[in-house]
Structures are given as C-alpha cells and as structure tokens.
Amino acid sequence: MAFGDREVTLDNGVRGEPVTVPTANPTGFHQAISEPAQMESAQIRGCVFTPPDPGPWPVVIVVPGSLGVAPSHVFKAELLTSAGIAACVIDPFGGRGVTSTVANQAQYSFAASAWDVLATATLLRDRDDIDASRIGAQGHSRGGSAVLSAACMAGLIDTHGVSLRGVYAAYPWCGQQFERPLVGDTVVRSVIGDQDEWCLPQQVQAYMHAMRLSGCNASFRLFPGAHHSFDRDTPLELVEDAVIAPGAPTIYLRDDGAPIHPATGIADPALSEREAMIYGMKAGYGRRGAHIGTEGDHARRFHEDMMAFWNGTLAAVHPE
Predict the structure, then answer these.
(1) CB-side neighbour CA atoms (13 Å) of 313
(2) Which three-class secondary structure state does DSSP give residue 110?
(3) HEC-encoded secondary structure of 19-78
(4) What are phi and psi of 114, to 5 degrees?
(5) What's the confidence (pLDDT) of residue 318?
(6) Residue 252 near residue 210, CB atoms below 8 Å
(7) Which parts of the chain are beta strand (E)?
(8) How buried is 66 (Cβ within 10 angstroms: 0-12 exposed, 13-18 middle, 19+ buried)?
C-alpha cells in the first residue's frame, strides 16, 4: 500500500492524517514558470502530523529522494512534532505510478518535484491548524533539489501569497541551478557528506555561495566522512542499479526557466531535462553504482543540525 493510503502513527503517539495534494507534471522549468497553463495536472499523497497541543503550528514539508518514502523520513516527523512543529511527509511517486527514480531520473521532471513542494505549501496554508507564515520544506537527495528549486521558483511565479520561511536541503543534487538564485526572505541551509558519490559537494557549496552573493541567507555544512543518505541510520550499502553523473557540468536556468546548454551557452526552452542528462552521460560523466547509509554517529549529528535549523528558523515553542 502506498504511503498516504495507510494509517501511520509515530512512536511518540502522533497519528498521521492522510491528504491528497493537487499538483502538476510540468515538462520542465520553462513550462512551469512561463507556460503554467499547459501543465498536466496530477495528484500526490501525503500525511500530515501535528503536535498534540492546540495550533496553529509551524510546519515542515518532508520530501524524499529517489528511493521514495523511507522510515528515516517518517522519523523526521517524529522529531519535529516532539519539538512542537507539524510535519507533512509527501509521496511524490505513488500518484505518478513510479516506484523509484534511482535508475532513471527522467520518469518525471525535477520541475514537477519543485512544483510538488509549492503545491503542498498551498494545501497547508489553507489549514486552520497551520501557521501560514511559518511553512518550511526539507528535502533529501532529489527532494533536496526540489526544495531548493521551489525556493527559487517561488519568486518567479504567482504563488497566491504562499511562501517558504525556510528550506533545509539534505545532500541535494545541484546539477541544475537557477542562474540568479534569488530566494527572497527564505532561509536556506544545505548539508552533504564529503564522501557522497551521488551528488557533488562542490556544486552544493557553489549554489549556496551564489545565493549568498545574491544577498540571500544561505549556509552550507560539509560532514567529513559521511556518505549519501547519512541520516538513514542504516548500514552502508551499495545500490548497484543507481545511474549517476555527479561530475557533469551544471545546467543553469534563466529566470523564465529555459535551460542553458553547457556546451553552447545558449538558452533553449525546448531542451529537456532528459536531453541534458543524456549529454552528461555521453560526455563520459555517467557511471553505475553508489553507496548510501550511515557510519558512526553521522545520523545523530545530522538530526542535531536539522533540529537546530528548524527551531531557529521557525521559532518553535517547545512543550514543557
């Protein structure tokens, strides 16, 4: 049974509320930003977890990566609700008929992943038990890319007043970046391990630096010795069918969403994400197989950093 279609109760006793999120399947960022009327509609499922005391509460949208919703993502909801912060864990896969994007990231666009974040924020904004001024988004791997892109895209489209107070991007893929990464008042933090084989730490670092140069509040932390998904608290393992190209050149996006081909420097609205990925593979950057998992106390240190960020950014009130 897909996540969001079953009852989930956290170890702290908080019971999840299944929700349906109306979203879209844009073909790419150009369609999402410049031609939104042409987007195909879609629906995804999620689960909202709220603290036991009366709201309205700040909330964090939790976005999984290429393997879909895992126990580690649900555990984030337990940590958040125990600290007086609501959580909404979303499942971008089930409603699209996808089980994993590990071997093929082009099953739906990264623009759709970003749209999911803003669509979920819209759903949460309209709830009486949620403080609309304190909505955050936390993404992991592909989900990390989604929350970063959503923060940039929010200033380029009509969000009908929806905004993100903060974004926490865990080991995000930053091979696609906005040329002008303006996130307004959104506070951004990205974390990644220096042993990450899926995503390039230098690209993440560069994206945060570009945001700071643009006047945005963005920070970066590198975890020595940590691998991809180092917060999972599961043993390190090799995912053999993972298709990755962490060293491929960055694809930059104009404000209208048109991608700029790294080999020509020309912005082309018709250039698809799939074509850009194929370029990276043919250029020799692609390979198969990468590790995920936790060694030592990396998961604990991740969660300490995560909660320090959200407690500070959302100014949560801790229950006695």
Answers:
(1) 28
(2) helix
(3) EEEEEEECCCHHHHHHCHHHCEEEEEEEEEECCCCCCCEEEEEEECCCCCCCHHHHHHHH
(4) -65, -40
(5) 42
(6) no
(7) 17-25, 40-49, 57-63, 86-91, 130-140, 166-170, 176-178, 187-193, 218-223, 237-244, 251-253, 259-260, 287-292
(8) buried
In residues, how long is the chain?
A: 320
Pair 274, 109: CB distance under 8 Å = no
Residues 6+ apart with CB under 8 A from 38: 31
Phi, psi torsion values for 56, nearest 5 degrees: -75, 145
Give the gyration radius of the chain's Cα atoms: 18
Per-residue pLDDT of 74-109, as tens digits, reads 999 999 999 999 999 999 988 888 887 876 766 789
Question: Which two structure tokens, joined as six digits, stand for 313?
Answer: 């950014």
Q: Which residues contact 245 (CB under 8 A, 6 or more apart)?
A: 175, 277, 280, 281, 285, 286, 287
> Residue 288: is its pLDDT beyond 70?
yes
Q: Which candidate, 46, 48, 80, places its Cα nearest to that of 168?
A: 80
Task: Say if residues 76 and 87 touch (Cβ distance below 8 Å).
Answer: yes
- What is the rounded CA–CA span in Å between residue 34 and residue 207? 23
Handedness of CA 131, 169, 24, 32 (dihedral sign): positive
3-state secondary structure of 120: helix
| Residue 167, token pair as written in the block | 């974004």
Degrees (nearest 5) of the Cα angle 191, 194, 196? 85
CA dihedral 145, 135, 189, 143 (to 10 degrees): -20
